[in-house]
What we know:
It is a single chain. By secondary structure, the protein is mainly α. The chain has one domain: MetI-like fold. The protein has 15 helices and no strands.
Amino acid sequence: MKRRSTTRLRSFLPVYILLIPGMLYLLVNNYIPMVGIISAFKRINVNDGIFFSPWNGLENFRYLFLSGAAGDIFRNTLLYNTAFIVVTTVVAIALAVLINDVASTKLKKLYQSAILLPFTLSMVVVSYVVFGFLSHENGLLNNTLLESDPIQWYSEGQYWPAILIIVNLWKTVGYSTLLFLAALVGVDRSLYEASSLDGANRWQQVLTIDLPNLFPTIVTLTLLAVGRIFYSDFGLFYQVPRNSGAIFDVTTTIDTYVYRALISAGGIGQSAAAGFFQAVIGFVLVLSVNAAVRKYQRSSALF
């Protein structure tokens, strides 16, 4: 048995060697920095460093939970991410089904490239694209469709929930669409032919063939998104609204609030506390949703 294990180890040795760079990256980038979590429970003094700074219990968590804006912060973070998950998933599935039905291979590649292009742009570039539409003086909307009654977009908060959802959808839907499209490509075409012979129309094929085959991918992406439901895209909520104070009540999330707090107070411990809270909530949510999936369809759960 020992000889067999040694022989097997030698046969897989090249694979283990290839694993070393990735394992080192995970160790240095993901695991060693976890030691810094203790700063969430300390009053950080730069001269003393993280390990020798005095402990202060849960004091760093107080600024987040006892802030007058705490209700808006948690509400915005949770509701925006919920809307992002639902809207992006629905639109990505629809686009994947439509692209999968395109007969021309060249057109398929064109559509895939077109919807993925926004995903490759930085949020700073996206913010300037949005500004080109919404600028009060020179924006496309105010100078064309709303020329007679221009809107101060960066001062009126009622428009921003819809704006942020649309911008996030435009930027991220391409990535999810490609994942769903990859799942559809693997579906046996004979299933469609058999359903057509039975008289099924395209909508019935979507419900009985496409969605069941997409379900594992939908569950996986949803679980990953739920794990980060208390996080937010900092660029989306800070760069796109251009940090306009007039609309803070509808654009402030946990991440932007912590950033602004650090600028004014320089609280390393407070930032660490917010990150620790987000990580714990995300971990609990992933376990909870995964347990629910395991209960109803064990094969679709992550673990």
